[in-house]
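Build the 3D complex.
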Amino acid sequence: MTLQLPSVHYLAILPELITIGAAVVLLFAAALSRGRLDRMVGTVVVASASVATFVVAFFQWHDIAQHGASTTLANAVVLDGFSVVATVVIALGLLLSALVAHDWLGRESMTGVEYHILTLAATSGAMIMAQANDLIIIFLGLEILSIGLYVLVAFNRRRANSAEAALKYLLLGGFASAIFVYGAALIYGATGSTTLTSISYFLGTHVLTSNGILLAGLGLLIVGFAFKVAAVPFHLWSPDVYEGAPTPVTGFMAAVVKVGAFAALLRVVASSLGTQAATWRPIIWVLVVLSIFVGASVALVQRNVKRLLAYSSVNQAGFMLLGLWSGTARGVAGTLYYVMTYTPVVIATFAVVALVGGLGDEGHSLEKYRGLARRQPWLGGALTVLLLAQSGAPFTTGFFAKYSVIAAAVDAGGVPLAVLAMAGAAVAAFFYLRLVLSLYADGAEEPTLTQVPVASGTVIGFGAVTAIVFGIWVSPLASLAHHASLLFLQKP
Amino acid sequence: MHNVWWINSLLLVPLLGAVAVVATRRVPRAAYGIGVATASLELVIAAVVTLLYSWHNTVSASCGAKVCTGFSLLTTEDFAHRWVLAPSFGLAYDVAIDGLSLFLVLLTAIVVLLALLGARESKHEAAFVGWLLVLMTATMGSFVSSDLLEFFLFFELTLIPSYFLIAHWGGKERSKAALKFFVYTLFGSGFLFVGLIYLAFSYQHAHGGDLTFSYLVLQHAAISHSAAVWVFVAFAIAFGVKSPIFPLHTWSPLAYAEAPIAGSMVLSALLAKLGTYGLLRYGVFLLPQAVHTLQPYLLTLAVIGILYGSALAAMSKDMKRLVAYSSMAQVGFIILGVMSGSSIAITGAVLLMFNHGVITAGFFLLIGFIEKRRGTSEVTSLAGLQRPAPVLAALFTVVMLASIGLPGLSGFVSEYLVLIGTFSTHTWWAVVATLGVVLAALYLLWAYQRIFHGRAEGENAEMPDLSHRERWIIAPLIVLILFIGVYPKPVLDRISPTVNHHVLILQQNTVTK
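Done.
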């Protein structure tokens, strides 16, 4: 008996190979070198890996344009426009958060490259999720991502908060993973496959006389994902974990985890379970409304900026789910555009938070932000732009992100949901604007100047500039998202 | 120069001015100088556009049902030129000026310049001037947009500078006022946003092609009557908050009273017009099918607004609140004209938008001058100002009489047109609304009596009169009030062709229904 190995299309899995490879290289270098490696080594390796991923993505895009979307590794991994764009966004998130972490590690006098190894590994998990065409592979990616993050959240051993947050994240994340696996098992039971395309094919060609198992599996899968993207009512871990985790890690979580989880969620729910839309739409509807409103209204009363941003990201997750709710190609493109524009903005925002937090990563009360823009116009101005972009102000990418998902919802017949979402956006805009206003207020109690190192400054500048430039020059990102279609989900 | 560049420069000039202000913020007094220079240049451009605007070719056989623009040097093709920015989003840059927007563009330029000159704030001056110029761009953009999504972008953008103007430079309760203003408006515009997206998709589903928000295209969106009514209602909520129309007005007295004088001027003279203008262009003219159904309700709300606003104005103890409520009554007249369906009344309403802007800007400037001298705008703590400040009293009288609608002053012309036009289509609403004219005389004269007559004591007796500079600032407004009051023809000639053209379509729709 010979073992039949599946054919491998190496170009498709090159981004994962690069990130894992970079992690392994760093691991060996750290083990073999005398003394501890300088953090600069880690940053350089991460940056090279990200840039290599961008280059690979360019070839992948070209490949898809010529040969169309394809699957490889026994249909377990897919290469389509959507996965390429999601991979690029994930790599961008990795690069930006590594730059933020570079300064943070220096400030906290941490040497070594462990941090970078962990982010590289976690990133590869997110990339796997974006490309997975099989529930098992999604689970694999999810676990690689999560295990890396459990350690990263606890990374600051000098803070008890950090360990506490990691424990919370570990326990709840473990539950979520278990729920996800259970859901995947039930789907397998109902359809006879874990491959997404086979599930889609099966559901398209068969009529289930009793679909209880399928529905239960679908529900559990959605719950598992909802935990990961912190959608209400599965968001309770996020404020504590966001607050407790080292700030660069928080930025990484807010961006990379969201991209990975949403990529997989869209692929599973909108594409392969698209035939069951009548079942999952009401569930997503509730998640959207709750996330938007609970996120926005609880954020109003927060006194800690990291908690505030945690609820803000819950609110944003609600909008991202809105694109999923519509379930159309326009909705998928809308959510993709949303995460694409949200990633640099949210990482840059947390970069500011990390800087203002200062040594020990403790100064996160809103008081610290009073008059920031008066003392440091550039830093304050950049934060103003970043917050306005998140609130969806016109002429920023945030506006078009909201527009793209709202338009998709209206197109799919969800006018009431769109109206509700806009009302939630109004509440959310208020707390962003209130924070902005305090940046320009007079009379800070203890005015301290925040040092802005080069790497973090670059990230903050990048976030603010892209938010405005692509908010005015809308076309490139919009058409990118528009053309990055999911396999098997055709344009209308 | 290509003619569209006149309009483009209306948007670019204040924006570049704002950038220059931010860039030179460390240079003392530079911000103010740049601000005034920018606003003056803007006014020159707006004046040139107003004078060049020719009404002769507006409604001609050649222009037909396609593109009807009234820009004399401009052929219709110039406006057919749309610059599509993002096809998948339907985003485009598309600007035009017609009889509806022409005088609002001019008004914007006038009011912002006078606000800078007459209601200067010395605290953080660069930021103040910068926000005011950004607000100018946003307001101009809203008026010249010929695309719904573009309009919405500018419409939303007005919120951010106005929020900061109120929240930073306002009175004691400024945070509350700014919050209320912001949340109300944003809730309203949510409906507008969803409504216009719905409209664009209805068009796309019916006709195919790329998603588009073009005003000229969407005018031909064949949506069902009930859908048109719902979209109209959604738009009316957004514009009703901004105008404000009763019962969505509750944010406005606080915001007008707590905003700095420049903020109140911009809010009442310009941003309120965004609401009424939006209702006219994107409600009545874009969705004519729905007008007939909703006419009675909106007319009734307009009449309630007139009477209720007048009653509240009579009760106000603060001058700024008084003007805020009187604005609400005036906006009631505008809405009455807009919804009446008569071309005379709509022309009057468009003129009233301009006149009301001039008059309230004058009111707030004068109140600002009093406040600067006396530190208060409470009616009860002012008395007998006529003796120490006769020029101030005289100018206040002119503005007040224009607001009441005295023949020979600008307010009369527009109110007369609105009432006579409405009378011909909706008699009883016009009859009740006429009471508003009487009430306006009542509350304004009463307030005048309390402030300017009687014996001046203490600080009131010592109050200095207007300086030469202040007189010159008010002068252009007085000239406009008198000019339009006596000879409104050049203004009406520019407004009515556009209105007539649209009303014709409106009537065809009503007949076929």
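Chain B touches chain A through 33 residues (CB under 8 Å).
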